[in-house]
Request: fold
Amino acid sequence: MGYESIAVDEYANLEEALSAELLSGKLLKMIERADAYYCAVEESSGYVGGVVVLELQHGTERLFKHIPEKWGPAACMCPIEILRLLTPTNDIDVNAWRERCWTWNSEVVKAAMDDPKARWLEVAERLNMEAYPQTLLPSRPAPQ
Reply:
């Protein structure tokens, strides 16, 4: 699948535009991180899966591409807040992507903890969580 043009200005906000034009399911939460938008999307079955949405500017046109977690997106900076919303699964491809995301978050926290000059609130902001040093290390949900 390639990039799709979406007239975002026709909607109240980006979340509404993506929900209407690109995502199949109910958008529960979306967080922008440097390389992409990370989404928790609830399917009609009740399963909540992760979706990465990439954006590309082409002149005045905004182009978007969605990559479900099942496809193993290269982007793996999914915020902990999103990861915690996802339904546990036995799918190997999905779990591989989620594990890469958990690992990325853990490495950011460990690097910050090793830096004596780290500012904990800035680290928490970068991870999109409200936490302090004792609660920063991410905990993974138990596999199913």
Observations:
- Residues 111 and 118 are 9 Å apart (CA to CA).
- Strands lie at 4-5, 26-33, 36-42, 48-58, 61-68.
- The longest helix spans residues 92-114.
